[in-house]
Write a structure and sequence with these properties.
- The complex is a heterodimer of chains A (288) and B (337).
- With 288 residues, chain A is an alpha/beta fold.
- Chain A has 2 domains: 3-109, Beta Barrel (Elongation Factor Tu (Ef-tu), domain 3), CATH 2.40.30; 115-246, Rossmann fold.
- Helix content of chain A is 27%, strand content 30%.
- Chain A has helices at 3-10, 40-49, 89-96, 132-143, 167-175, 201-208, 223-236, 268-271, 277-281, and strands at 16-27, 30-37, 55-60, 64-69, 80-85, 102-109, 122-128, 152-158, 180-185, 197-198, 215-220, 243-246, 262-263, 266-267, 274-276.
- In chain A, strand 7, helix 4 (132-143) and strand 8 form a beta-alpha-beta unit.
- Chain A is globular.
- Chain B has 2 domains: 2-190, no CATH class; 206-333, no CATH class.
- Chain B is built from 10 helices and 12 strands.
- In chain B, a hairpin with a 5-residue loop joins strand 8 (156-160) and strand 9 (166-171).
- Chain B is globular.
- The N and C termini of chain B lie far apart (49 Å).
- In chain B, 42% of the residues are buried.
- Classes of the chains: A alpha/beta (288), B alpha+beta (337).
- At the A-B interface, helix 1, strand 4 and strand 13 of A face strand 4, strand 5, strand 11, strand 12 and helix 8 of B.
């Protein structure tokens, strides 16, 4: 056994060192970084473990660690991409890091989207604002093996046009004829040359009216969007067990010990972050 | 006939264990409080305490502890590990509730990812527990289905003699036997009877409480608001608790080097679960107190098949506003199931 994996075993809180190889401004205050492992053993461990849906703790020494999903798919596991909004101490330090700088990463932790169970089915992705990253990881996992899935629909909205993330990929998806892309911004968030929908995500989803027949829905967004999107999906006839989402609770350890991500008896870091809507509805709603 | 350790010989035992390289730890009273602390002589022990104010937890999961050290140079980071000091220790005079508390937390620190900061200390520490012959109004081990002479989590159990001049020795594990082999010649065979163990009245019926907690509709009961109205969120109960295990990481240092520490944290604090967005899943003190009770008696047993409470009663004994687990569970046991 190599030195690194031994030390991982000894100290489960010791992160891997990553180098920033690309960074991209997505929206005001929102950035995407691509980072690569500096130690080949860490990369090997990551490739063995990483499945779409898992999360990690990204850190800057002296500031701390923050939890985000891995926004890149398991089909592209040579690197990690993550997207975050600069809003606190750690995210500010991350935002200030430049290409060539090094940061830390712990993970991948948590469970995954059961993508092979989606084979042969139609997929609808619904997300809002900065919640596209976890969805994007699933979207690319499916697009990288496009032939295994039926119709793919993506409904994505943000408050304003500027707040849409992955604009370059939205453009790419919009051009493909094997994806139905529905973009929307909240009323008032449009620009004069905005050619897509105006309206809240759940409303736009109802207008798009995807058939629940043989269809899996993956929804990510702020709690208020999730709440109303679930109502819309129900109206459209979706069964809760065919709707997947991710919970993004505050975490420190990521490995089921520090005690803060629990919702009822569920440790989001270990049993999540991916849940079906049916599982979420069984949790104590007041603790969500 | 049982083996007996005479009180008069304890000082020699302490010296012998210290010579063998063990750090000897036991209940010690100081000016403001009491805790399990290292001693050089047996006279420093205070066996008259019902239990030390501070639980045994801090010897395995310290209030603050370095996890790793980092240095940052231009585009290069070096991380080095901290490991707990490799010292071997013997804790003489642990209370059964404290020793049980350690056993309760073992599965938590070990599931899937093994926290070696905990286990390294667990593996190098001998726990010699003294059965309780007295209890106070806050003790509640019997309500948790434990007993004042529980062997759970202990390597050796001592029963105080009726004449108060020593202890009957009951070795429970190989680790305990090894430590007592060091002092084998200081033990005697004897027939002196042990003092009766403390009588700890049952304060509530645990099964009734758990049944109530497990009913989903009771999660939203107004009971939680009422019972926790007094709570000031000081977190004393969680810090003193032998089984509360929540922690935080904090970096101490500057841009170029520093230490990442694991610090005690508490579900009583509002910031504990606060999201960056400002959304807080447990936004009120009643939601936080409900989490603590639910976690100990509903969620934790669901995961690890054991209650996350050993009945020491410190949460009630030292609560500045006179509430605690006992008061809460007593109130629950009077509610309609």
């Amino acid at each position: 056994m190599t030195e690194t994996s031994q030390s991982v075993q000894q100290n489960i809180y010791k992160p891997a060192i990553m180098k920033i190889v690309a960074r991209h401004d997505e929206a005001p205050g929102v950035k995407t970084m691509r980072v690569e492992f500096q130690n080949p053993t860490d990369l090997e461990l990551f490739k063995q473990r990483y499945r779409t849906g898992m999360f990690g703790l990204y850190g800057v020494y002296g500031e701390g660690e923050s939890t985000f999903c891995v926004a890149s798919p398991e089909t592209r596991n040579e690197y990690i991409e993550f997207t975050f909004r600069q809003s606190g101490r750690v995210t500010s330090a991350l935002a200030n890091a430049d290409i060539g700088d090094v940061i830390t990463f712990r993970g991948p932790y948590g469970n995954r989207f059961p993508i092979e169970q989606f084979y042969g089915k139609n997929l609808i992705f619904v997300s809002g604002g900065i919640a596209l990253p976890p969805t994007r990881s699933v979207i690319w996992s499916c697009l990288d093996q496009r032939e295994k899935f039926g119709k793919i629909t993506i409904v994505y909205g943000a408050r304003t046009v500027a707040d849409l993330v992955y604009k370059h990929e939205l453009e790419e998806w919009g051009k493909r004829d094997d994806i139905d892309l529905v973009l929307t911004v909240d009323p008032g968030g449009e620009t004069p040359d905005w050619k897509h929908r105006i309206g809240f995500v759940p409303t736009v989803l109802e207008q798009a009216a995807p058939s629940p027949e043989n269809c899996i829905a993956v929804i990510c967004g702020p709690p208020i969007m999730i709440k109303f999107t679930l109502i819309s999906l129900k109206k459209l006839g979706f069964d809760e067990s065919n709707v997947y989402t991710t919970l993004e609770n505050r975490m420190k350890c990521g490995v089921g010990k520090c005690g803060r991500c629990n919702v009822g008896s569920i440790y989001v870091c270990k049993e999540g972050p991916v849940f079906t809507a049916a599982e979420v509805s069984r949790m104590p709603q007041a603790d969500l | 006939m049982t083996r007996i350790l005479q009180s008069d010989n304890l000082d020699k035992c302490v010296a012998r264990w210290r010579e063998a390289g063990l750090t000897v730890i036991g209940p010690v009273k100081n000016e403001s409080s009491s805790s399990y602390a290292a001693v050089e002589k047996a006279a420093e022990f205070d066996f008259s305490l019902i239990m030390p104010d501070r639980s045994i937890k801090e010897l395995f999961f310290p209030q603050t502890e370095p996890m790793l050290q980092y240095t940052i140079k231009k585009q290069r980071i070096d991380t080095s590990d901290f490991t707990p000091p490799p010292e071997k220790r013997i804790i003489f005079g642990a209370r059964p509730c404290d020793a049980s508390g350690l056993a309760i937390d073992d599965p938590l620190f070990g599931w899937d990812y093994k926290d070696n900061f905990w286990f390294q200390r667990r593996d190098t520490t001998v726990i010699v527990t003294i059965a309780c012959t007295k209890a106070d109004d806050f003790c509640m081990c019997t309500s948790l289905k434990l007993v004042p002479d529980s062997t759970k989590g202990s390597d050796v159990l001592l029963r105080p003699l009726q004449n108060n001049k020593g202890w009957q020795v009951e070795e429970l594990t190989d680790r305990g036997r090894d430590a007592f082999n060091e002092i084998a010649d200081l033990l005697q065979d004897g027939s002196e009877p042990a003092a009766p163990t403390a009588v700890v009245a049952e304060k509530f019926n645990l099964d009734t409480c758990v049944a109530w907690l497990q009913k989903p509709e009771n999660f939203e009961s107004t009971f939680w608001r009422e019972i926790s109205m007094r709570c000031i969120g000081c977190a004393s109960c969680t810090f003193l608790c032998p089984t509360c295990h929540c922690f935080d990481f904090q970096d101490e240092g500057d841009t170029y080097s520093g230490i990442r520490r694991k610090n005690w944290d508490s579900c009583s604090f509002a910031l504990f679960t606060m999201h960056t967005s400002g959304h807080n899943p447990r936004a009120t003190q009643s939601a936080r107190w409900r989490q603590r009770i639910m976690h100990k008696f509903n969620y934790f047993p669901g995961k690890f098949n054991v209650n996350s409470c050993s009945g020491c009663g410190r949460c009630s004994r030292q609560c500045p506003v006179d509430m605690g687990i006992t008061e809460t569970l007593q109130a629950i046991s009077t509610l309609q199931p």
